[in-house]
């Protein structure tokens, strides 16, 4: 992967104050300064710093392509915890959230999203052989399994909807911590995206990922989609991003960008942010 920036350059200054022009003027300012700061959450394969201190992941790699097309030559990472991405965007700590964030109605009340660049089912990380036979959130509830998921993850609500009490969940920073909790026997199951689950267990001798499944929302199977988030005032930047994203989807280049990170054709999507926001 091309080097997109270094960790040391990520957070040396805060971004400029919020735009006041109709539609926002952030795109113009980013073009003038030649760099966009990306909020990432250290989650493989969505956005993370690799062992060489380089920014990579599906969202940063896609951001580099799109922003170059928009006249912004460089991207820089601003690492934070997943649960701090939306607050950090609002408080000007970075310009855009580039972390594969799921688009849902609650988040759509706080930020605006580009159309999703992927769709995703859920999966569980369980002990080898899946001794408790956990394949759905309903299984977790019915079998009294000890449940974990990540900070700010949509999977919290899916488990709650199935009847699991949030106060009984173990909330950990990310999927690596979730894997460790399963391997150590502190929980029976960690819930995350199908992609992160299957990637993180590849080198584990104690855990495996279950078959992907659609969680139930309102009693109906639900497919998630993830994308880039922007401050609500920055509709001009969001719309320009969408134009380039649609071109990448149509040409097939989007899949070529995402494929090295474990994405398949089944995870490409024509869903819109409006649909996922509930509108």
UniProtKB/TrEMBL annotation:
Name the UniProt key words of this record, in alphabetical order: Signal
Segments forming domain Solute-binding protein family 3/N-terminal = 35-265
Domain of life of the source: Bacteria
Gene3D superfamilies recorded: Periplasmic binding protein-like II (3.40.190.10)
Keyword NADP: yes or no? no
CDD domains, per the entry = PBP2_Ehub_like
Q: Cross-referenced PANTHER family, in alphabetical order? A: ARGININE-BINDING EXTRACELLULAR PROTEIN ARTP, MEMBRANE-BOUND LYTIC MUREIN TRANSGLYCOSYLASE F
Q: What is this protein called?
A: Ectoine/hydroxyectoine ABC transporter substrate-binding protein EhuB
Lineage, broadest ranks:
Bacteria, Bacillati, Actinomycetota, Actinomycetes, Kitasatosporales
């Amino acid at each position: 992967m091309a080097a997109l920036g270094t960790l040391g350059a990520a957070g040396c200054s805060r971004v400029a104050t919020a735009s006041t022009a109709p539609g926002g003027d952030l795109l113009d300012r980013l073009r003038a300064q030649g760099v966009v700061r990306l909020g990432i959450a250290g989650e493989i394969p969505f956005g993370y710093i690799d062992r060489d201190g380089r920014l990579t992941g599906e969202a940063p790699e896609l951001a580099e392509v799109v922003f170059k097309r928009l006249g912004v030559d460089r991207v820089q990472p601003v690492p934070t915890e997943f649960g701090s991405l939306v607050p950090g965007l609002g408080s000007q700590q970075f310009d855009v959230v580039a972390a594969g964030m799921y688009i849902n109605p609650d988040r759509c009340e706080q930020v605006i999203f580009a159309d999703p660049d992927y769709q995703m089912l859920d999966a569980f990380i369980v002990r080898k052989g899946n001794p408790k036979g956990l394949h759905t959130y309903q299984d977790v509830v019915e079998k009294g399994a000890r449940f974990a998921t990540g900070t700010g993850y949509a999977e919290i609500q899916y488990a709650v909807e199935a009847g699991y009490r949030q106060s009984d969940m173990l909330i950990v920073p990310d999927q690596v911590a979730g894997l460790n909790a399963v391997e150590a026997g502190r929980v029976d199951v960690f819930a995350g995206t199908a992609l992160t689950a299957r990637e993180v267990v590849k080198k584990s001798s104690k855990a495996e990922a279950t078959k992907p499944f659609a969680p139930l929302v309102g009693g109906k199977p639900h497919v998630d989609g993830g994308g880039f988030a922007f401050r609500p005032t920055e509709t001009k930047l969001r719309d320009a991003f969408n134009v380039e994203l649609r071109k990448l989807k149509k040409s097939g280049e989007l899949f070529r960008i995402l494929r090295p990170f474990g994405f398949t054709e089944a995870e490409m999507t024509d869903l819109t942010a409006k649909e996922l926001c509930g509108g």
